[in-house]
Design brief:
By secondary structure, the chain is mainly alpha-helical. The protein folds into two domains: 386 residues, Up-down Bundle (Na+/H+ antiporter like fold), CATH 1.20.1530.20; 98 residues, Rossmann fold (3-Layer(aba) Sandwich). The longest helix is centred in the middle third of the chain and has 39 residues.
């Protein structure tokens, strides 16, 4: 390939990535599918913008090597030990119960050999880490019960990947198929010797190497060393007849519990992201659309079967693992797709002669289609099934009844998540009796174990507020996270219990104004106290004494409260509509100008000690 041609192809790759990936992420399909579709468009099946797909794919496999190195970095032994029950419980069940029926269908239904059937089954059972983690992060569900179950399944697939990477070369044509038992034993022994040598050598050599490089202090040298370790270990295993991917994975595992793990991750991540994008585009380029046109029934039939099987199995695993109906549906809708590791496994299997090119083409198409279908399964569950089944799900467990003869609390907390719990703990330590209402039954059951008076119920229901003691309470705390939900609760409280003070949690300034519209005058902006406390500490770092810093923060809080009221008057003039992006920017600019006018000089502060 001439240098000019290569430069042109790289330019086209970057152009396609810059255009396709943001569009697909904005549509909710994720970056991986964006790269795949861009590759299909640029490949021989459509516009043939890039013809030399094989050369591009060979170069792009470095991205796979870096991906597996970073995956290995995440498998710290301490982390695996803490999550062992989830990983080898729900995680293993989710992968194996999906893989077994798919392997049986491939072997008995399509007549494939056991090696091909095994790789197909596990490749399709592995879900996409990129898609699942992105969605969980966007919806703030990484710490949810179904989020932890999904993470356990993703971790288990990486643990299962290690023996699979080592086994694929032994399954290939010209290896175990033509060997006698002695030859097979020798091949396995050679593999084990090389693996042990790499593990032992890496354990005793890698940390001293990185320690020495870190002392030099040159960041580019550290990055070069990290790349050298990844590619060097990969090349050693390749020379021993094993896949490069296995070497990269092992190198990552060896450094997973080292003190340099985070720095190595930061050094490798930019290269990995770009080269993985090139790998997925190369996979898209190699997709055979003519095959899809010739065999649409086969491809779409397998795709539908994989989606249906994985959704059913994942829902069942979630229920058996203790998730409620909503959490199990979320898990099943999130992870029915084939993952990025399927492309890695199927490409390796074809390289080592375990899988034919025609089978690989069909499987690539199936994985791409399952990835394309997953955003729709997720949105269907979130926007249609969740609202439709919400009533029946609540009816499965009736709201708690609060006895009329029970002692009425001085404080009623509506919503007992993180914010409400902190308020409750403070009241408990001050021996001020309180009770709480929360619509999450798992949360209620957990908090009750510690003796707190918390009831399962919807705080927006007036009858529950009444029986929980809202009419006689000295204060009602609205601490729910969702802004619209909190507005509904405050509205009901203000209408039905107008004499009771309402203390409401505000997510931001706009939320605070809407609470003011409802007549709520005691509002706590959740970001204010923490940011002011941090600011006070920073002032002390820059030479202000403790009293000066405390008074400066109080002056600023008073100033900010005054600005909040001033902009609330402007908000009232514009009505209750949500502000535009430009209006928010204009408001922020006005706040900075006002802050500048009210700048605080430590010499101007009057202290009681002076």
């Amino acid at each position: 390939m001439r240098a000019l041609d290569f430069l042109l192809e790289v330019t086209l790759f970057l152009l396609a990535a810059v255009i396709a990936v943001p569009i697909f992420q904005w549509l909710g399909f994720g970056a991986v599918l964006g790269y795949l579709v861009a590759g299909v468009i640029m490949g021989p099946s459509l516009f043939s913008v890039i013809d030399d797909v094989e050369s591009m794919l060979r170069f792009a496999k470095i991205g796979v090597v870096l991906l597996l190195f970073l995956v290995g970095l995440e498998l710290a032994p301490q982390r695996l030990w803490v999550m062992r029950r989830n990983i080898f419980g729900q995680g293993m069940a989710g992968v194996l119960v999906c893989a077994i029926p798919m392997g049986v269908v491939a072997w008995a239904g399509f007549g494939l050999d056991w090696q091909t059937s095994l790789i197909i089954a596990l490749g399709l059972a592995f879900s996409s880490t990129a898609f699942a983690m992105q969605v969980l992060s966007e919806h703030n569900e990484l710490s949810s019960l179904h989020g932890r179950s999904a993470f356990a399944m993703l971790l288990f697939k990486y643990i299962a990947l290690l023996p699979l990477l080592a086994a694929i070369p032994l399954m290939g044509e010209g290896s175990t198929a033509s060997m006698d038992p002695l030859g097979i034993a020798q091949a396995i022994a050679r593999t084990l010797v090389v693996l042990v040598a790499v593990i032992v050598g890496g354990h005793y050599l890698l940390r001293p190497v990185f320690r020495t490089v870190a002392r030099i202090g040159a960041r580019e040298t550290f990055t070069a060393t990290a790349l050298l370790v990844v590619l060097g270990v990969s090349q050693i295993l390749k020379m021993a007849g094993m896949p490069m991917e296995l070497g990269a994975f092992l190198a990552g595992v060896l450094l997973a519990d080292s003190e340099y793990r985070h720095e190595i991750h930061l050094s490798i991540e930019p290269f990995k992201g770009l080269l993985m994008g090139l790998f997925f585009m190369s996979v898209g380029m190699s997709a055979d659309l003519h095959m899809l046109a010739d065999m649409p029934g086969l491809v779409f039939g397998i795709t539908g079967g994989v989606l249906l099987l994985k959704i059913t199995v994942l829902y069942a695993v979630g229920r058996l693992g203790g998730l409620d109906d909503k959490g199990s549906r979320a898990l099943a809708a999130l992870m029915p797709q084939g993952g990025e590791l399927a492309f890695v496994l199927f490409s390796m299997a074809m390289t080592y002669g375990v899988m034919s090119e025609s089978v690989t083409d069909v499987l690539f198409a199936v994985v791409i289609l399952t990835m394309a279908a997953t955003p729709f399964t997720f949105l269907f569950n979130r926007r249609i099934l969740d609202p439709m089944l919400a009533t029946s799900e609540i009816d499965d467990r009736p709201y708690d009844s609060v006895g009329e003869d029970e002692e009425k609390p001085k404080v009623l907390i509506c919503g007992f998540g993180g914010f409400g719990q902190m308020v409750g703990r403070l009241l408990h330590s001050a021996e001020i009796p309180f009770s709480a209402l929360d619509a999450n039954p798992l949360q209620v059951d957990f908090i009750r174990r510690y003796g707190h008076r918390i009831y399962y119920g919807d705080p927006a229901r007036v009858d529950l507020l009444t029986t929980a003691g809202a009419r006689d309470a000295q204060a009602i705390i609205v601490a729910v996270e969702n802004a619209e939900y909190s507005m509904r609760i405050v509205d009901h409280v203000r209408r039905n219990f107008p004499t009771v003070p309402v203390y409401a949690r505000a997510r931001n300034r706009q939320h605070a104004w809407r609470l003011m519209d409802l007549g709520c005058r005691v509002i706590t902006r959740e970001t204010l106290s923490g940011s002011m406390h941090m600011g006070e500490q920073l002032l002390q770092i820059f030479g202000w004494d403790e009293d000066e810093a405390r008074e400066a923060v109080q002056v600023f809080r008073d100033h900010d409260e005054e600005e909040l009221r001033k902009y609330y008057a402007i908000h009232q003039e514009k009505g209750s509509r949500n502000p535009s992006d430009q209006e928010i920017i204009d408001e922020l600019e006005g706040l900075f100008q006002s802050d500048e006018a009210e700048s605080i000089d430590p010499d101007s502060l009057q202290h009681s000690s002076s």
